[in-house]
Amino acid sequence: MYLVCRGGKLDSQRGGRVANPETILQNKILARHGARPNVRLWRNETAGAWVGKYLGRTPDGNVLIGSASHINAGLAVGSADIIGIKDGRFVAIEVKMPGKNPTKQQKAFIDTVSAMGGIAGVARSIADSDRILGDPKGE
Fold first, then answer.
1. Strands 63-73 and 2-5
2. What are 27-44's pLDDT values in tens digits?
3. Which of 38, 65, 73, 90 is the most exposed place for a label (fewest CB within 10 A)?
4. What band does 118 get if pLDDT is binned at 50, 70 and 90?
5. Spatial distance between the Cα atoms of 107 and 127, rounded to a whole number of angstroms
6. What CATH number corresponds to the domain at position 6?
7. How many CB atoms lie within 10 A of CB 82?
8. Which residues fall within 8 angstroms of residue 107, CB to CB, at 6 or more apart?
9. Confidence of residue 19 (pLDDT cuts 50, 70, 90)
10. What's the domain count of the chain?
11. Which whole number is the average pLDDT over 123-130?
12. What is the DSSP code (8-state) at residue 115?
């Protein structure tokens, strides 16, 4: 058995990958709150990938992987996009675009962090991140 892996869409105008709107919002939240003296934030990369024996490429550029196995990487399934510490408390922020909702696993992670005394929530805007972490201008 083998697996054909297809690459992501490229933005031909810029020659790179198309920026994900959630990634742009994550970066804005990290920039706004990450430099505060009582806050440390990190982007929590989670991913799934296929590993196995490289068999070559198809004529259209896809990769063939033999004996393919799926692996997950990152903190945990459902863990938040942004994690960190504020005043000694664990922080978990799930970033979503307006109109989008967290998965069951993401909601469970946020609920667990909150129930255990951490700071957690869903941010669909900079204002939401201020609500979760407090407005940095107020410090």
1. antiparallel
2. 999 999 988 999 999 999
3. 73
4. very high
5. 20
6. 3.40.1350.10
7. 22
8. 78
9. confident
10. 1
11. 97
12. H
